[in-house]
Amino acid sequence: MHIPDGFVDARTAIATGILSAAGLGVALAHARKHLPPRRVPLLGLAAAFVFAAQMLNFPVAGGTSGHLIGAVLAAALLGPSAAVIVLSAVLIVQCFVFADGGITALGANILNMGLIGGVGGWAVYAAISRVIKGLFGRIVAATFAAWCSTVLASIACAGELATSHTVPWSTAFPAMAGVHMLIGIGEGVITAIVLSAVWQARPELSNEAAMSAPSGTYKPLLAYGTLIALGLALFVSPFACPWPDGLDKAAETLGFKDKESEQRAIPALVPEYKMPGISSEGLATSIAGVTGTLVVFGLAWGLARVLVPRKSQTPPPSDLA
Amino acid sequence: MHSQHLDRYSGIKSPIHGLSAAVKLTAAIAMILAMVALPIGQAPYLAVPALILVAAGLLSRIPPRYLLRRLLLLEPLAVGIAVMAVFQPGGVRLMVFLVARGTLCLATMILLSSTTSFSEILRVFKTLRVPALLVTTLALMYRYMFVLADESHRMRRARMARTFTRDRRRQWRILGTVASQLFIRASERAERVYAAMCARGWQ
Fold first, then answer.
1. Which of A117, A184, B70, B159 is 20 to 30 A off residue A233, Cα-Cα?
2. H or E stretch including A65?
3. Is A77 part of the contact surface with chain B (CB cutoff 8 Å)?
């Protein structure tokens, strides 16, 4: 999903650059205030880890292979602000050392994978793990969130390409969303396996992550929510109204399922916004989209059942903090 | 370190390597911006950056084969997106233009990254007042990413030495276990690095 140079026009490059610089600035300010100095090197090491983990390929259908993005993985392990810093660091190094992802597309890539993938995925993760308690709930939440973050980031990527007039939305959207709905399953499975192994081997790491989550401070979350909403409004919603043809819609609806959870994080912006997926003729496809999302959620549930031993599925009282 | 070969030629001596990182960075960004701003259909103008790149590439004394191999490895990314551009009126011409421009942009960044060490780029970031926390994170990441990549190679080799079956279902589990082990080792290393940084009077 790393966009190279030459596919994002100047306008889009500047807009995404401003959005992601603002997001990274919020993350850095938040981390400087709340991150204990003991954990500063962990940011660098976690970035190195995400880099190494991205080199692990997994098979996707038809002989192709995808690789981990690690956005939700980083966010679940370190909290949203640290994840934004870590993912941005990975993208900057990949750009300047390996020419993987363009320099004019750096803003778009950080916006997609760091902000939308990382913070957006974290919002889904936090919302679900608040409902389903314990390690089991966290694994279900992380698996589903990893899938959502991958799909949502790919939709944003398609929107940026279409806004730049390089690739038509009617091609970019089904191609990107379709492929990444498959890759997202791999992302979800690996995220789940890694998190369950890490949290069972080192329970103290999950407590630390919980502490670094900005539970008391809403300011950074509000800022991230606004930036993500702005990004989606600029690059995705212009295309959501002139509907692409039938087949694309099911996937589109899936995309908006994820957006719903974005809105929950920023209640102030909700009233202005109308769900474009709800129309009489879109009802059938909406149902298809909901079914698809439910299937992935069921997959997440089943995977967590396999990965988390029964006894730790009922959390001890100390785990609730 | 085995994985260091990924960033092999940024330390050699040549007229291009001798230029300051700020100059090279500015030049590369300016050239990429010019290419990005070039209206679609003005393909002949791409010959100018192409000639500059060939000249700079020859001056840099990096084996052309190495540069071309890196370009070929990254080319699928550009071609993959460009192929999606075919499905619109005038799509084939647009695709050819996008592939050419994308390739030249990639070549620019490859040349920049193989003639400029990342620590020099970080120094430029520092003078541009990029927040210290980000620069520290980038520096530590660059320092340890090859170490962790090597570590994951070692783990893979150890596993291959001990397992003799290729089980598709197990493949996922193994991938996950390797990655989780890698994170645990990384976080333990972070503790040691912090202790070492404190011992050397950090902050």
1. A184
2. strand A65-67
3. yes
For residue A36, is pLDDT > 90?
A: no
DSSP A208-243: HHHHHS-SS--HHHHHHHHHHHHHHHHHTHHHHSSP
pLDDT band, very low/low/confident/very high, at A44 (cuts 50, 70, 90): very high
CA distance A229 to A153: 13
Closest-CA distance, A166 to chain B, in angstroms, reads 6
Contact A30, A81 (CB under 8 A): yes
Is the separation of the CB atoms in B112 and B24 below 8 Å? yes
CA A271, CA A260: separation in Å to the nearest integer? 12
d(CA A319, CA A171): 47
- Per DSSP, the residues of B15-68 read HHHHS-HHHHHHHHHHHHHHHHHSPTT-GGGGHHHHHHHHHHHHHTT--HHHHH
Could you tell me how many CB contacts below 8 A there are between chain A and chain B? Answer: 235
Q: What secondary structure letter does DSSP report for A195?
A: H
Q: How far is B163 from chain A (nearest CA, A)?
A: 18
d(CA A133, CA A315): 7
Chain B CB contacts of A93 under 8 Å are 118, 138, 141-142, 145
Which residues on B lie below 8 Å from A162 (Cβ)?
none
**A239-274: b (≥16 Cβ within 10 Å) or e:** bbeebbeeebbbbbbbbbbbbebbbebbeebeeeee
Q: Classify residue A314 by its DSSP letter.
A: S
CA A254 to the chain's CA centroid: 14
Q: Are A85 and A28 within 8 A, CB to CB?
A: yes
Whether residues B176 and A8 touch (CB distance < 8 A) is answered with no
Among the listed residues A137, A147, A129, the one whose alpha carbon sits nearest the alpha carbon of residue A292: A147
User: Are A49 and B193 inside 8 Å of each other by CB?
Assistant: no
B-facing residues of A in 239-268 (CB < 8 A) are none
In this prediction the ipTM stands at 0.92
Q: Is A68 left (phi over 0), alpha (psi -120 to 50) or beta?
A: beta
Inform me whether the C-beta atom of residue A178 falls under 8 Å from chain B C-beta atoms: no
